[in-house]
């Protein structure tokens, strides 16, 4: 029988302090997001007066109508969705395949490759050599500049590698007895049992692809290939939204301001990736804890 011990007054005070501290931290974290959301649904001209903190004072959807009616934003959103889906699939597949090869102890030069890969985690050539490389590869102003350079990441390889090493060797041995080669084992056995780590890496890279504005800003001049984050960056940096407001029904309206357009654009570009997270959360938590517990 386990004896139930009553909490002391000091423990109760400590627990209460922890609860209040966590509530404070959550409030500080969530409120800026709530502030942007509330102001994006408020009338733009009215929001210029300030004083909106917890709920829209004059509810309006005109800012969202202006955002969704703008063809440039819709094209940028299409580019972002395409590069996120294609880039994530390519990254997960290629990185997992390389990690599976690294998990094979018979791989010649494995220690050298691990050393070289570890060095790249701490040192890089810099922006100018990277730009020259991208130019020489013919990827400037190309959609594939979002995909090919991001197909492999050594940190993600380490996460895959930790999971692959925990797969029972008997599974692969049984498959080899049945005549399966390494490719068949990887596609038919390793990947299906690795869904937690696959979902984790997919979420990591998917969020990166969705939020990446720097690649489009440096390597893309063609506005037809700019992702939504680069589009949003230029809107915020230039502090001008005349083109977007002009695309609103009826042209520029007095109730739509550059600030309300910015806030609405932020919400539109953030919500899709936020909605994806709950579906991957259970795999994300399990995959993120890989290697932390032995037994």
Automatic annotation (TrEMBL):
A Pfam family this chain is assigned to: BPD_transp_1
Cell compartments where the protein resides: Cell membrane
Gene Ontology biological process terms in this record: transmembrane transport
Superkingdom, natural source: Bacteria
Transmembrane segments: 12-34, 81-100, 112-131, 143-164, 185-208, 261-280
PROSITE patterns per the UniProt record, alphabetical: ABC_TM1
Domain ABC transmembrane type-1: 77-280
Annotated Gene Ontology cellular component terms: plasma membrane
Major location (coarse): membrane
Keywords recorded for this protein, A-Z: Cell membrane, Membrane, Transmembrane, Transmembrane helix, Transport
Topological relation to the membrane, as annotated: Multi-pass membrane protein
UniProt entry tagged with the keyword Cell membrane: yes
Family affiliation: Belongs to the binding-protein-dependent transport system permease family.
Protein name: Binding-protein-dependent transport systems inner membrane component
